[in-house]
Amino acid sequence: MARDESGIADPNRPIIVVSNRLPFTFTQTDHGIERAPSAGGLITALEPVLRKRGGTWIGWPGTDLPEAGSLSTRGESYDIAPVRLSEEEIEGHYRGLSNATLWPLMHSMVDRTRFDSHDWASYCVVNERFGETAAAKAADASFIWVHDYQLMLAPARIRRDLPGTVIGFFLHIPFPPYDVFRLLPWDRELLRGMLAADLIGFHVRSYATNFFDCVERSLGARVNRTDGLVEYGDHTTRIGAFPLGIDFELFESLALDDGDSPKNSDERVVLGIDRLDYTKGIPERMLAFEQLLEMHPEHRGKVALLQIAVPSRADVAEYQELKREIEGHVGRINGRFANSGWSPIRYLYRAVDQKRLCAIYRDSDVALVTPLRDGMNLVAKEFVACQVADPGVLVLSKLAGAAQTMREALLVNPYDIDGTAEAIHRALEMEEAERRSRMVALRRREKRDDIESWVRTFLEAADHERAELHPLGDSDLEAWLGDFMSGYRLALFLDYDGTLSSLRDHPSLATLSPAMRAALEACAKRDDTRIAVVSGRALSDVTSMVDHPGLIFAGNHGLEIDGSDFPHFIHEDLVHYRNRAEELARSLSRLEVDGAWTEAKGPTLTYHYRAVPTQNREELIRDAHRIINEAGYQARDAHHAVEARPPIGWDKGRAVLHILRSLYGPAWSEHVRVIYVGDDHTDEDAFRFLAGLAMTFRVGSADTPTAATRRLPNVEAVRTLLEWLARRRVQAS
After folding, report:
1. Catalytic residue among 119, 363, 495, 679
2. CATH of domain 474-571+650-727
3. Annotated catalytic, 495?
4. CATH of domain 249-446
5. CATH T-level topology, domain 15-241
6. What phi and psi, each to the nearest 5 degrees, are found at residue 361?
7. Tell me: the pLDDT tens digits for 418-463?
């Protein structure tokens, strides 16, 4: 892990921030490039921190810009690095996958969610560019902080170039339950992208709990909820809840300044202020206020709802429809209850400058913060910070993340119109002593847990040594396999290189360790277990490496199979390829440079480039693929190698099926449980074939996507699995 003596959490140390938007929006005018502060909770939270600490902010500038070197940062203490996007990419990534898919789905609004493969393709391209920019700008940084749902793949892209750099990821919106998140066709890809980070932060614990469920059930990751850890492949990620705060002192100081009051001297104000978005529950809020006036007519003429809607995504049809719906409610309710001197709802569709906003917060009697779903909600916190005089009352949706810490608010279900109306009535009738008691507690907590505290707490968590789960143990394996295997015999399939033996520079060096051999032999002694070793090695090679008479051996990815009591099998089409393999070997010999070499395995070959310097590999790999394909073979990537296989429709998956049918008959799945363990691209053929029929394990790095049920970090974990299988309780009939 790259870090120096000062540590990541040092308040004087610069940080790298990566987010969808820069803190400034740039526009082209006749006078050149002009900029204005961008809107949004993330920028409101982080820009003051980066201004104090320094560093670099990487994001989309909102328009086409000239080269970055011509952009002025106007004396700011940090740099900006714009990521340029085409209009097509903006449409697919931002308006499409981010805001038409992830935004509604993450807020559990499935009926509003759109699934479009073209949007997904744009999302992948843009995340690749953000990650590439971050890796280039932060090559010497010790900490990169990636933010929010638009960039869930970026940590994996950064990790590819900067494997030793500490990466943090924070999600500023809710993380939904497993049954909602798995609706995404790309759920596994997004989870893998996030898990490349060293630390993932959510606003509240319930979102982290949902994330644990998803990575465990969708990826088969190993989780420790108590310690907040996820192990996926050979990488462990720390998970935590970090409730976002605000710049409390700034809002408090602005509220203490004299400002115009939003109300008449005798009129009481119920305040709603939101970005115009369907998650904010503005129509439901207006219906609740209407119900208040219906149920409690004593408030008519004395109380007004001031609803400020900040324009957002005005070019999106769904938001235009929402605006029309809100305006319809305003007109109808005002038409029903208004008189010559009073209107029940005052609706402002515009942004309000910060000083004016603080005065409005200060002088409002009730803040009605009732989103249908919200990651945190900073409006509730800003209202509390501005209560510097006669305190008002906060009515808060229990579906906002803020509700988990702001317990002194009056919590409501925004879908319960009558219940919300009664809460408004209670807030308006509340005695000063109770109002003050609730607000004092809220203010004390929000002042303590402000934005600086949030940043400090997150960076301190990122400053820990890279997390590691305890080694794989019996409790893990019992949880994964106990019920699965109960009452059944076991067919165990194992790859060799990278699974039973660690990968070596030369295949001849990849011998079984004494401990692994003992574990394998202990499994083989069981009457209820059959073991097959399925390898890309030649049959004679893998048989001699393992050297155990009771096992079945499948060589050349299953093209040749043999065992002491298993009928010898050679694929019938191999006879056509033996001479062609010799010709292919001669062609590949031209690429045996810089330590590369060709392994002849009878009907197949493997071109190894592990010893080749990294910078020289790309051209050799490309040429190897070309030569293999031109020879009529299939080129398949493996660990630092390219496999050449006859195109005869046979792979490890079909070999496994052949073995199972030979041992147990066509109805094998009724009589036996199957476990397959492998570490290679070629094992993916078996993982895909066995999906839903077996428990499959991919060994090694988390970098590569897999169809396996679960991951194992290394060969030692495979040995632990074999030892557990060897001593498990006899349960087979």
Report:
1. 495
2. 3.40.50.1000
3. yes
4. 3.40.50.2000
5. Rossmann fold (3.40.50)
6. -55, -50
7. 999 999 999 999 999 999 999 999 999 999 999 989 988 999 999 8
